[in-house]
Amino acid sequence: MVKHTQRTRTDDELKNLQRQLREGERKVKRAEDITQIEFEKRKIRKQLLLLKNPRKVALARRLGRGFKITGKKVGKALIKQGKLISEQQERDRRLSTAREKTLSRPVKIRKSKKKKGSNPNVFDPFELNF
């Protein structure tokens, strides 16, 4: 059995390793910056490419480049998988939170203002008919 001795690394090697580590960290950060939804979109794009339907392949190629239809398709796929909320659901959610806020707000009781000159109990001399 051969006993392995750990040899000391040279300065160049250390610098190289540190550089690689820095680049690796940068890559990891960049990967974290890409949101989960972007990741899901890419996955769907790959899935669509796997289907050999030429229209879908073309669609998948255009995905993520600001095409309306394609974005819609991906969005729908994400909604079906439950990874994205549809606009309707988002609207409903906003409405319900607004409703909750208005319901939780204390109700102000406004004092009614008296109307001037419309009191029926006041004696009006013109109403007398002689």
Describe the model:
The protein has helices at residues 11-33, 36-50, 54-62, 68-81, 87-104. Helices cover 61% and strands 0% of the residues. It has 130 residues and is an all-alpha fold. The longest helix is centred in the N-terminal third of the chain and has 23 residues, at 11-33. The protein has one domain (13-103). Residues 7-34 form a coiled coil. Residues 107-117 have a biased composition (Basic residues). Residues 88-103 have a biased composition (Basic and acidic residues).
Count of individual beta strands: 0
Strand content: under 5%
Helix content: 55-70%
Task: Assign the structural class, choosing from mainly alpha, mainly beta, alpha/beta, alpha+beta, or little secondary structure.
Answer: mainly alpha
Q: Let me know the average pLDDT.
A: 67
The N- and C-terminal alpha carbons lie at a distance of: 136 Å
**SSE topology string:** HHHHH
Q: Please compute the radius of gyration using only Cα atoms.
A: 35 Å
Poorly predicted regions: none
Number of helices: 5
Form type: elongated
Sheet with most strands: none
Q: Please, how many domains? A: 1
Biased composition (Basic and acidic residues): 88-103
Coiled coil: 7-34
Region (Disordered): 86-130
Keywords: Coiled coil
